[in-house]
Amino acid sequence: MTHHTLRQRLYGFAGSCALMGALLPPMVEAANLSAGQDPFAASPAPTESTSSRRSPADTHASGFWGELALHPGDAWQRLRANFAWQDQWRADAGHDRVQYWIDEYSSGPRNIAAITRRARPWLSWIIQQVEARGLPGEIALVPFIESSFDPEARSHRGASGLWQIMPRTGEALGLSRNRHWDGRLDVVRSTQAALDYIEMQADQWYEGNIELSLAAYNAGAGTVNQARRAARARGQSGDYWDLDLPSETMDYVPKLLAIAAIIAEPDRYGVTLPDIHGGPAFARVPVTRRISLDEAASLADVSRQRLGELNTGLRTGIAHPHQVEELLVPAGKAQPLLAALRTPSSSSSSGQNSIHVVQRGETLSSIASAHSVAMNDLARWNGLEHPDTLQPGQQLTLSDR
């Protein structure tokens, strides 16, 4: 059973050779999904399953899409229509391995229902991304086994986010991180990066074979390539089901197929899936001026907690256009915030938010940190050739406008 990418993708966004060299180690840790630690297996509190928890934080993104142009309807129906592997695994060598995980997961239907409820804000959009790339619909369910669909999931090995991306891999894929921002926690950017990576590895190493790329996503291309060579030396074809891999990776694709099989026929397994509309769950609003999440929540008429849950990449309560390009807001709530960001606020036009008066003991670094801007930008905006010569009472502009 294989599925191949529909096209060869370009790898130039980080330099093909350098990027692939950086990504040979495992991209992710599969959220500790070894036996006994699976998020679906008998865990009375599935929200505490695979990784240490964090309180909702905040986010960022890339270009204004407005309301997402998803087809209306039921997200589960759309997902099932894109499943590509469900008729194949039952007759394949992996049948027993998949059936084992179907039995395991279906023994805890409430856990699956809880995780699918957590997927509600993201699933329709992720299905759209997977569909647009011509990938099997099953790929939209990778976050189930990686993070239990928790955008703030963190593993003890350092993997973070919905797709459990490791720091080094995130940097290679352009997911920057600092104390204000972590692109691995941003659902929009991390999803795009993870799908790019899955397709890129499939084309680079495996003639478009997505199953092998998923194995490499979990264990690293070096591990998978070595296992393929060993399988071929034994006279086997070297596809995923032939490989002798770490136990977590041996279970990786079977778990994915098992979850998809249950979602394909939830009644058969006693699972009740929450209603998830196929239409837009969120909209993306460009950040054109410095704005706090408290202010944005008030303008959009949503709770601060809800806005933080949608913007988990933002690690502080302030979005600045030099660090954050977009905010996500619930669908239907974008226009008031968009209008406010297009029109300078009274405090901004009077200079209250755009000017900082230097106090005794302050440094350019401390001022930049307090206002969530880069120190180099602050120096450039104010023409400071010697940033260490600030004087009390000196006024600094906090933007390039």
Question: How would you characterize this protein structure?
Answer:
- Pfam families: LysM, SLT.
- Keywords: Signal.
- One of its GO terms (molecular function) is peptidoglycan lytic transglycosylase activity.
- This protein is elongated.
- The protein folds into two domains: 16-269, Lysozyme (Orthogonal Bundle), CATH 1.10.530; 355-397, Roll (Membrane-bound Lytic Murein Transglycosylase D, Chain A).
- Strands 1-2-5 form a three-stranded antiparallel β-sheet. Strands 3-4 form a two-stranded antiparallel sheet. A two-stranded antiparallel ribbon has the order 6-7.
- The protein is built from 18 helices and seven strands.
- Helix 8 (187-205) packs across helix 9 (210-219), helix 9 crosses helix 10 (221-233) and helix 13 packs across helix 14.
- 40% of the residues lie in helices and 5% in strands.
- It has helices spanning 16-23, 75-82, 95-106, 109-118, 123-132, 142-147, 167-172, 187-205, 210-219, 221-233, 247-250, 252-264, 293-300, 304-310, 334-342, 346-349, 364-370, 375-381; strands spanning 66-67, 282-286, 291-292, 318-319, 326-330, 355-357, 395-397.
- The chain starts with 15 loop residues before the first helix and ends with a strand.
- It has 401 residues and is mainly alpha-helical.
